[in-house]
Amino acid sequence: MAPKPHRPRLPDCTGALVAGGQGSRLGGAAKGLLRLGGEPLVARALRVFDGLFAESVLVANDAAPYAALPVRATPDLLPGRGAPGGLHAALSAARTRWVFTAACDMPFLDAAQIAWLAARREGAPAVAVVWRGRLQPLHAFWSTACLPEIDRLLRQGQPSMWQLATAVGARLVPEESWREVDPEGRAFENVNTPEDAARLGLEVP
Ligand SMILES: Nc1nc2c(ncn2[C@@H]2O[C@H](COP(=O)(O)OP(=O)(O)OP(=O)(O)O)[C@@H](O)[C@H]2O)c(=O)[nH]1
């Protein structure tokens, strides 16, 4: 039988799973391998991405823990910069005009919510939600037009995600708008500690 054609909803966009962290608060665990309902978080995220994006990439210097996954892995080009370095690598690796970045430890990524955010990016270089006063840059769309400025800032120092978003002129979606699709901000949940894993019902492999 011929393989099913891949018809993503957002063909101008790459889904990037940022997975190069130390996981130090979880004893050095590869957080993307935590399981929800028996499925590793990265596998779940890639399933969501598959229906949405032209391609998925996994951004990590050490992709060995994720070797079994059918995804293109790419390293940080500027290592040691934390999540901003992951964003930089994702934009550098993308073959599309847009990148959606997600952390590898987000258990509740949702295709309809991501598509809702995508619909708010036109005319902006990037779009991210501000939830409870905090920018959510690892659940955000960034155009590859942002790359030169992000590259410049990362080569100069250690900018935060907030500084990068400000520098490129990201569009900020206020909390009250996001509540239309996600009243409790489930999309932004992520796992940092054993307590988070227990609270979110995750299994540690
Ligand atoms: N590619 C890349 N991803 C990173 C880097 N640092 C953090 N991340 C990812 O960014 C997301 C948020 O990271 P954090 O949870 O703040 O940090 P962490 O290193 O994973 O965990 P801690 O060591 O406990 O702070 C996670 O998906 C990490 O895997 C990095 O230097 N490069």
UniProtKB/TrEMBL annotation:
GO cellular component annotations of the record: cytoplasm
Keywords: Cytoplasm, GTP-binding, Magnesium, Metal-binding, Molybdenum cofactor biosynthesis, Nucleotide-binding, Nucleotidyltransferase, Transferase
Domain comment, as recorded: The N-terminal domain determines nucleotide recognition and specific binding, while the C-terminal domain determines the specific binding to the target protein.
Family statement drawn from the similarity comment of this UniProt entry: Belongs to the MobA family.
Gene Ontology annotations of biological process type: bis(molybdopterin guanine dinucleotide)molybdenum biosynthetic process
Cofactor(s) listed: Mg(2+)
Molecular functions per Gene Ontology: GTP binding; metal ion binding; molybdenum cofactor guanylyltransferase activity
Catalyses which reaction(s): Mo-molybdopterin + GTP + H(+) = Mo-molybdopterin guanine dinucleotide + diphosphate
Residues that hold Mg(2+) according to the record: 105
Enzyme Commission identifier(s): 2.7.7.77
Protein name: Probable molybdenum cofactor guanylyltransferase
Task performed by this protein: Transfers a GMP moiety from GTP to Mo-molybdopterin (Mo-MPT) cofactor (Moco or molybdenum cofactor) to form Mo-molybdopterin guanine dinucleotide (Mo-MGD) cofactor.
Gene3D superfamilies on file: Spore Coat Polysaccharide Biosynthesis Protein SpsA, Chain A
InterPro entries hit by this protein: MobA-like_NTP_Trfase (IPR025877), Molybde_CF_guanTrfase (IPR013482), Nucleotide-diphossugar_trans (IPR029044)
Residues annotated for GTP binding in this entry: 18-20, 31, 76, 105
Cell location: Cytoplasm
Record Pfam families: NTP_transf_3
Top EC class of this enzyme: transferase
Residue intervals of the MobA-like NTP transferase domain: 16-158
